[in-house]
User: Fold these one by one.
Assistant:
Number 1:
Amino acid sequence: MASALGAQPFAQDAPEDFFGKRATGCVQEEGFCPDWIADNYDRYLDPFFQHVILTVVPVAIGFAIAFTLALIAHRRRWLIGPVAGFTGALYTIPSVAFFFLLQPLTGLGRTTAIVALTCYTLLIIFRNVITGLNAVPEEAKDAARGMGLTDRQLLWRVELPLALPEVLAGLRIATTTTVGLAALAFLAGGGGLGAELDAQKYFKSNVAVAGGLCILLAAVLDVIILAFQRLVTQWQRAAAA
Amino acid sequence: MTDHSSAATPSNVNGRQAATLEFRNVTKRYAGQDEPAVDGLSLEIPAGEICVLVGPSGCGKTTAMRMVNRMIDITDGDIVLDGESVKDRPPAQLRREIGYAIQQIGLFPHLSVADNIATVPRLLGWDKQRISERVDELLHLVSLDPAETRDRYPAQLSGGQRQRIGVARALAVDPPLMLMDEPFGAIDPINRERLQNEFLRLQQAIRKTIVFVTHDIDEAIKMGDRIAVLQKGGKLAQFASPAELLMYPASKFVEDFVGADRALKRLALQRVRDIDLWKVATVRIGEPVFEAHAKLADADLDIALLVDDNGRPQGWLSNGAFTGERVEQKLRSPAEPSVELDDILRDALADLLTSDTRYGPVVDDSGRVAGVLSLEVIGRFLHQAPTEARTGADLVEP
């Protein structure tokens, strides 16, 4: 089912789509043509929303997994090394290879892309949550325990709020990275803006719009998380002021 | 103020303001270490007193304190809080009833001052209104302006203010026992002295049982009703009142630890009114000379002090003042240094040492002469046994 979405290798048909009847000199020269862009922007809408899904879903799932792993490893410190090693190993797998490796399991399509992209977020998020938790001042933890907070209360009321800037910083890196990596999801048949890019990679207008949308998406998601971060960590700026 | 808050605190051990605390042969041994960190420590701390644990680093004083609220497990022996072994209490529940203040303060940087103070009340499920009132009350108690402070973050406060918030937070649910580990250790000397005085004044109002850890013998002498001196290996070297400790150190170790200047330190525990002053002949201008001579015969000092109509010292009279029938205003020296009855002996001694004379008139609250303090008087006092176990707390102005 996922393969129906983006697996269609339309590279051969694309030239007609792109140059069609209204091909002008600019388009024929594969240049940067504002007119063409104005007429054709709607062809990018679907790939763009695919790209949003290819970013948000892996980051969300990756965050849930990595965050849970980090909380477990925070109490059982010996787990930090193995988890960091494993997620680190996942991170080093080239994406094309990853897609191939997953194909026997998940076939060709968006699921494959999402699984791979999810795996790439784990290392960054896991490490940042652990770093954030490690940076919580020892005296704040000691005072919290001394006042009678249970381990769970300590975690949710003291440690996580104090680790939040680092956690959200990890989320930002993971999100921007995933926007970029998702541009390769078409290789797994996952669609997205990468498919558009690849379809006409010598057509400057196409590259500008598809690439520009990738950058725009990364920037917008980054700003959203940043805004959230500023909202929930006002104490940090109060301290700096 | 405290009555109100303690009545409103169901978590108090039996609703009492202060608890008794007893260390019964308490030992802490860490795995893999030959020497115990705390070795058979026995102490009885009456309700409402400050017990200072003092000693060089590695003497186990902090370990001993942290066993009280079970931050560290007791290896052997028992700690009994208000008749109940701390080992029988779930740690989190026990800790909520024991105020906890540490040197690094450990305020939560992400919470406002009010939220920091509200930590334990929230754990105990107090309602908002009550928490808010209690926060303001505590901020007043530690001399901070609630309107200005409550919404600030710890990083926006000075070190002294943070320290006060730490104490306020530890007092939040009016606990019958407070544990304080070098609470003023990270403060500069001038502010430390101020905070110490403030805290002693506060303690006069709240009368908590307090276990106070410090490595500074001067702080121990100032803050403690009783002092437990610990030595390396967690052994109790002496448990006594500050005056006793200074007068009769139980061992060479304690003697060395309290310092060669322990006689001077005793002076810091006493006010001028505590010692027998010299009697002085006070004379007014125009008084018959024979009366002045009679006074002189009765005095400890062979020169007379001129006073005004209100009994305030004007200066020391020279022999020339007594040549006529009536006393004339002929001064040999001014009435300096002037010492007050409420002055601390150490400060009075400093005044004497920096002046030309080795004696000075002592005046009472209304400025009237009450006697004369001299180096000799102080010297004599230092050879006497302490009649009364004075403590630093008695020396802070109410």
Number 2:
Amino acid sequence: MTAEGADAKGVGDTGTTPSTDQPTANRATADESRVPGSLGRIGRVVGREVRTVARTRTYVVLAVALAAVLLGLTLTGSATAGYVPTVADLLTPLEALVPVVAVAFGYRAIVSDAERGELDVLETYPVTAWEHVLGVYAGRAVGLLVAVGGSLTLAGAAVAVSQEEPAAIYATQRGVDSPILFARFVVLTAAFALVVLAVAIALSALANGARSALALAIVALIGLLVGLDLALVLGLVEGVIPDAALVDTLAVSPLSAYRGLVFETVITTAAGTGPQAASPLASLVGLVAWLVGSLAIASWSVGR
Amino acid sequence: MKGNTSDTPRQPAPNASDGERRTDRARPPILEAESLSFAYGDVEILSNLSLSVDAATVTALIGPNGTGKTTLLRTLAGLEEPTAGAVHYHGPDVPREIGYLPQQPAFRPGFTVAETLSFYGSLVGESRADVLARLDRVGLGDAADRRVEALSGGMTRLAGIAQATIGDPPVVVLDEPGSGLDPGMSRRIYDVAREIAADGTAVLVTSHDMELVERSADVVAVLADGGVAASGHPTTLADRFDVDSLLDVYEAAVSGDHSRVRVRGETA
């Protein structure tokens, strides 16, 4: 087929350079210097996600509800006793709440764009799959960190104003309560949330539609909250996991890794004694592996 | 908006015989499908199909439902991987080579039209002012601050066309841009397509609206049985088939029982 219209014109075959007879008279001249690089493109996607999170009432309600629950647990719990007792109070509820909130922030992030056809449209722009996934992840992470970090900061503030004895500023020795230990707990919780968010983003990329995304999210939550820990227990009972390797093997489960890190770096530090709950290094490696692996799967799925 | 509002079909170039057109081919097409095949599992949709698209033209793909128009369009846009054959892009090296309007365009809710297009524009270095100019061009300037979920079907389609032109891609593919719209809006959308082509862009559309295609397209390719059954300017095709309209060309080129839905790969 060829151009048969009266105004049909051709394009040069240079492959990279428009020919002089190319009909570009009315076309705006592209300013190559304004085209963003890889980081710039990721930044554009991040901005879009941050605005999406900020404008979605569900996320705002979720963040407020999380703050209310944590504040309530803190004030009715060990706020007067100090930071570390509050950490002990909040740890178990957070093991369930953080995955739920993180999955809620991420499980539709990519599948919604795919359902609307916007992923196809984005594919015609110079944005690679990994740039898109990283941008979506980072943007959602901002919202999640505000929700989780903000809630825990409020809880910490509640301890600060409720505590009956002044806390030592620096935990220079074991057995000392300290806001530093609480801050460490906040960082670890935020890291756990980011790992679960990465898993949710991966599931969102793999899902065929909103329903399958929801189903996958529920399965993932059950797996993260119960399944992996049960598998570890089963492995221990059956002798697949040697007793000596248990502390390291716990790193396989993000939840166990998080719990172990909190015990090892916050609670045991404050208590000054106790059995080794986890290997901090293995736990950190486990969390990083889950995060990087999930984002890699998401990038592969978007790019396929 | 300027545009071709004439009801008369666009005429082929004077004295543009097939032989002379081949001489024009010294300049290669901007987009070329070479021996394309595409199959969903065992069902072959496209079979050894070749097609070329020239700059500054509106090329329309027509054919019965299920003949692979959308599949071909998506393959040409690089959104589907052919099972055999290849797509060659011969245009300039630009950040965005091909613009794409999906069959049912939709945008992320919660954003205004200007915000949505500004996001896309920012990926290729366009400013908000550039994007607003594109909205003006498709006649949506007054809706720039309207939320995308509050747009009508036609307005969404126009916003989608504005999106497809962001970055000035040398090729723009529009999947049934007038589908489901009232006649006035459909005509407006095809007028916009003609304007885009007048700027030098190769515009490729799929459509079932023979009247609009006949009026707007420079080149028509009739798809049937996994390949191109006929192609050329609407008037040239009508002459070739010795009929009066593109609809008659369509019926002559597409063999078989028109009262039955043709399903590729099955014997329905």
Number 3:
Amino acid sequence: MSTTGVNEKEHGFRKGPLSQLADFFDNRTGYRALIHEALFERVPGGARWRYVWGSTLVFAFMTQLITGLVLWSSYSAGAQSAWESVYYIQHEMAGGWLLRGIHHVMAQAMVVLLALHLMQVVIDGAYRAPREVNFWLGLVLMMLVLGMALTGYLLPWDQKGYWSTRVATNLASLVPIFGPSIQQLVVGGPDYGHHTLTRFFAIHAGFLPAALVTMLVVHLSLFRKHGLCARKPLAKPDAMFWPDQVLKDAVVCLVVMAVVLGVILWPALQAMLDGQPIITGSLGAELGAPADPSQPYAAARPEWYFLFLFQFLKVFEGMGATGEFFGAIVVPSLVMGVMFLMPIIGRWNLGHRLNIVFTCSLLAGVGLLTAMALHEDYCARWIDPVSLADVPALLEKTGGDKSKIAASFGNDASLIAAFEKRRKKWDAFRHSLAFLEASSQAKHDAERAIELAGRPERIPPAGALELVRRDALSQGPRLFAQHCGSCHAHVDPTASGADAQYAKASAANLFGFGGNAWIGGLLDPQQVAGPAYFGNTAHKDGDMVNFVTEDLTDRDVWTLEDIKAVEVAMSQEAGRADGLHRSDAQATVQLIEKGRSLIADTERCGACHAFRENGTALGTAPELNGWGSREWLVGIITDPTHERFYGASNDRMPSFGKTQEGSAPMLSREQIDLLADWLRGQWYRSGQAVP
Amino acid sequence: MAPSGKRRNHPTKTPVADVSKITGPHAGDAAGRRNFFVEAMALVCGGLATLTPVAAGVWMFLDPLRRRSEAATFLPVTELKSVPDDGVPRQFAVVTDRIDAWTGFAAEPIGAVYLRRKKGSDEVEALSATCPHAGCFVQIDPEEKCFRCPCHSSRFTVDGQMVAPSPSPRAMDGLACRVDNNGGVAVKWQNFYTGIAEKVAKP
């Protein structure tokens, strides 16, 4: 006998336990009536595709809520933990790339859906009485969504988010009277740091969503109160929201989701077709290098849907502070003001048309500005610099002097104007090239930071920025450019344009220093006095150059095998970390031993150079014990005038690490270590033990 | 959905008593005064209760307003010999101890300056690398021998003057710079508000 036997007996029909449970809850909550009210809304004229946009926005917001809450469960808002936790989500957690990717791409989809929803409401005149308040609520909702997009950009605390947010918060300071206070409140103090992140996170994940949910509830209940604003004339008989309109809504939501997934997975598909391995960490949302206030980031751009505002600031060039105030504050406020007035303007028919024209031209203007911004950044990809080659040539010749340029065109106004036009194009090309180079550098830096974060030792408590700052591969080129690059070249001799780089240098090319090829060039009579070695230095006519060009060419004294032996033995002293010294198959033990004895020989190299126990005094020529090793390089960078190195014959090289008369050295010990490691090719490589 | 005879049907709404009866035996002005008093007290009690967390929240939220940056002091940046007297600006990091809320950093790069020395001069000119337009990092364009902001394309001459037409409202921000007897170059590091014509230091 079933448990429902009593009911069966009393009523003559059988009621399942689930049904009973449903009855119990309906009895106490009245949920059936609620669901009925929610689903059985009359859709005048039947379900239509044009009514789906509101629902897709609710769907997009729900997606953001779900993905956002889970992201929250793994995110840590702090200057030394935000990038690190996002790195962990993106590159190490199962499915992190997908979740973050959906959150990132759906945010962009939401902006597009907002524009579509707004267009549909304006075109259908759905803001007219009695729906004015709901239209205003919609505008507020739009600003809340844009606010979430803006605040979300900073949260990974990478270079891109950091520098873009600096611009956005600096613009906030332009608001009259309260601007500076607003800026300080948003930033969380006078400087960017922990509290910028905690505040942006609280705004992004707390204040704005709470406000949005509240407004959304009112927006939806008002929508229900007024009923759907049907497009006249009604095409078909009325239908119910469920299931006709819900089906259409659901189909479009699915399409939106498919597009989002498509954007995330597109690179994976391409990799698959190319037969490349798929790296899931690189899919979905990007993660730049960790934010560094001291490291310029020339590729700082807002997310694409804010590019029009970014570009708008350039429109006002030449207008000074007024222009910026106009572009950043006045015009956007006026536009929002007009939109708020739309229900009033739209009361009479012409006004409604004006509203449509205004909205369309606004979107067109946004589109145009976005296109302009993209063109300015990427035009170097399609402008041919050769076709403009005369511009830099003339600028170089005249030194940019206007009257000289005019004179070169015989003061012909039309020719000068034509030149000015080409000069602008040349300028645009160079601006774009700089942006593209900065972008690729940024990509490079990001990849390196991610590679470092994946070391088996993990990220130190001081954060990933510390890792980057202590990385020879990241810092070496910068330190070299700043402190060494004005004299030394660092260019692969086999690369194109290497000669041009030597021409500018006044000291040796240090590319591959200590490797076989480098020593081979030093011992080559054709090269030793060339610009890659001593050619541009005071040692041009020195003992070493004489030795290589005269003694070494005497085959009775120096056989080719002898020279090879010295080269191999020297590269063994340097012991480059990247294995350049091992690139030579001839580097046998016998050959190395032979080379060492030749170097130590006081009739040969040992006549000037101290090596092993050959008894040659320091001070005449650099010591060759451990030549090119880390310790040796650190020593020569610290003080080349030391007797172990060039002593009194040092040619212009500063003693970078020497403390002089109580003042700090030009380079810290740590910086010198980084330079030495970089020059020797010693840095962490993933999948390899640190040598 | 017929409820069983034994089960009680739970009404969804409690019947509301007639409002006129609630006022009870009191009538006329006295009732009106009492009503006003009750309403006022309800608002005051409820308002005070709610205002407490709001006030405490606002109080803490406004805390950043009383935070000030470290007073601008001269920070050693480099040595005179690292600034060749060729009139070409060079970029240097400004390094100092920094406090970010609860974290203290020792010798941390906090920004960058451009230093420039004219031919034969021992005086060094310092310019902040922060663009006065919107705060991006201004960079040197070695080919055109000028400064160029990578964000909105503001351009400045090597001595920091605007190249018209420029989105920037003012020239690059000069910083006080001095060279001590040992050849150490120190710069008075300051941040300025961006986007306005006047150079106003941030508090």
Number 4:
Amino acid sequence: MSIWVLRGLRDGVVTTRWPARPDPYADGWRGPVRPLDSADPADLTDRCPTGAITVAGGTVRVDQGRCILCGRCVAERPGVFTWSQGDTGPAALTREQLVIPELPETDAAVAAARARLAERTRALRRSVHVRHVDGGSDGSEEWEIHALLGPVYDISRLGIFFTASPRHADVLLVTGAGARGMAGPLRTTHDAMPDPKVVIAAGTDAVSGGLLADGEAVTGGVGATVPVDIWLAGSPPSPFGILNALLIAVGYLTPDGKRSR
Amino acid sequence: MTMTQPDVQALWKYLESRVTAGDRFAGLFATRVADRGPVTLSAHVTTAGDVDTLEAVLPRGAASYPALTPRLGAAFWYERVIHDTFGLVPEGHPRLAPLILPGDPLPRHVEGYGLFTIPHGPVRSGVVESIEYLVETPGEAIPHLNMRVFYKHRGVENRYPGMTAAEGVLLAERTEGIATVAHALAFCHAVERMAGCQPPRAAGLVRVLHAELERIANHLDVAVRLADAAGLAVATARFALHKERTLRLVSRMCGSRFGRGVVVPGGVSARSALSPADIGAELGRLHKSVAADAAALMATSSFLDRLRGTGPLTPDRARQHGALGPIGKAAGFADDARLNRPYDAYPSLAVGSGRKHSAGDALARLRVRWEEVDQSFGLLRQAADDLSAERAADQLLVPCEPADGRALGWAEAPQGEVLYDVSLNGGRIVRCHPRSASFHNLVLMHEVFTGDILTDFPFIEASFGLSVAGVAL
């Protein structure tokens, strides 16, 4: 066994200090697609396989909750779309907030959602327990969540722990497009958690269903089954993105990246 | 090659003779062409260098057909899927419970004094995919195990029709997310075969880079889960670190940690953002630390004790079933598509056939994975060297105008061979039937609990290294 003591010391400290310190990998992350300010809206909508691009009143909008990061639009219309560099995971408090640029009526709704969330997160301070449920994912989201338990992200340093029992859980982290077979177990898990609780829809599939959105076997996102508080885009979301959403859930960060305490 | 037989009995007879002669049964599915038209049964069998499709059309309006499973056990789950999706009854099927659609489980498989069922799932402890295991046990031994996978059924297959080939790749990438590259490759190989286009050599090398990095990441994931099951905290952390470094290397090459968006029909979408020299240097460092930690793990006797003799698959069963990937190799049945039906840049690289194993237990499966990791690093080094010899101006993409027709495509995923049966018409997908290695192999979990007890369960599950997403589709 002593061999493992030595092997454990080999690479020194590999753990990121994010969010207290910036992390170069997070800063270099190729985030979701956004339209440029100078976007010209001529014939754009059919370029997107998930219908994330809309044009209304001369404004091009990207719904990051539908974007699966395929990059077709950036490759074909570089003058209209670009990657948001360094945005590890666009997390929003309302579904509409994931539409970029923001729709005019979003502000008030976000403020209301923020107030509702703040009230609940007051109770979740230094020790937060998370229950994960797979609601029909492609399997990659589980890898990215699992990465948080590894030495690089090590979420226990932030007082966040995964728990087997929903009875101990404060946060419900849901992945997947909302498979109908999982609707019952997902609802049961949600109802088994004590109040106050926060629900995170992790990944584009969980937000909107992604490429499967219109299929008969899924509900087009998990929002149809449980009330979602935090919407996190990404296909799959990066570990930093999931960490970001968890820190918003516990009231440590706000969705615009500011420390709230 | 597609071979049509006059009726189902003739189809099964011919299929059986092919399997007896040494070909491998690779899948079975049904299709209904027109709305109320007759149902066609299609079986896939591998042959030297290719995969054949054997077909028979059922009489119009047929409600049942003679089952294949009594003659060929490997069809057990395939026929349950046919029953689920078409309502067709395979007569003589030993246990016709629903598989990918919800339904009540059948009564217990084994009966006896004090036997009970432990339902485990679909929401289980830890961060894992949803599946329900019904463990039939008298307390410690596991005489039988039933698996219910329908919870995650996402209707993937039904989403393909109507998509263009370019959109189809995106869905293939998300059919089984941890084998993104292999699924994209298998899909694109089918499309390229119909179009008769040959991706440029540089593109083939980039494809190999991503496919082998995916294999390393998956095998490291299995090591993480096995070390975790044994409570080796440092080993768990070490392999998680190596896996993270592998995924980060992939993301620095292409922007996605799973290699998404790289493989497209006709080649690859872009040159790697890292130079072959940088990739080579990073791979060298990674290989050294992975090899050292793997050696330490394989010298930790408390760990090996948990794996040795655990969850053994007999060589006979592996051969009869045509077990894929590391599960097959560990039991002496090796059919690696990279070697036997090579594609992309593999024909020009030295793949090597690896050592022969026969123990078939969890330890043998892990040994096979470490050998494959070594082999992958070797292939990566060759591919990176060859790629640096290619000129920067070399093409990465040839035009691949989708042609009408039907073709099979395959690729060797970390879990084993992935097989896609794609039909196109007018540039759109008419039908796409993906068959993951996870689907073909997971059913073997039924076979491996001889003599194992409840605490062996996490080891056996981890040593299979499969993804439920690829099973329930």
